Amino acid sequence: MSAKLDKLRVELEKARKKNAEWEARVKELETRYCEQENTEIHDMVHAANLTPDQLSNLLRMFAEEKVSSTEIINSLNEEETKNEV
Question: Is there a single domain that holds both residue 25 and residue 66?
């Protein structure tokens, strides 16, 4: 084979290796991101002392727009302020 083809083959192999490394890194970061997100959600629910049924009802109300998210967020913020004092 020609020197140009050999050089291109080597570059292509390097690029494929780098690509595989980056894909693995992306997958690892996606996993870590999801785990951290789930941890933060769990911590928020736990801090609010919600039972699974209460959480389910709250989420259903948000989805059905029976209660505005602004009202709930404001009331939760007010409770946090009261608890801090």
Answer: no
Q: Looking at the structure, tell me whether residues 41 and 62 fall in a common domain.
A: no
Co-location of 16 and 27 in the same domain: yes
61: Cβ contacts below 8 Å, ≥ 6 apart: 67
3 and 40 together in one domain:
yes
CB 45 within 8 A of CB 55: yes
Report DSSP letters for 28-85, one per residue.
HHHHHHHHHHHHHHHHHHHHTT--HHHHHHHHHHHHHTSS-HHHHHHHHHHHHHHHH-
* pTM (predicted TM-score): 0.59
Q: How many domains does the chain have?
A: 2
Read off the pLDDT of each residue in 24-39 and give the average, rounded to a whole number.
97
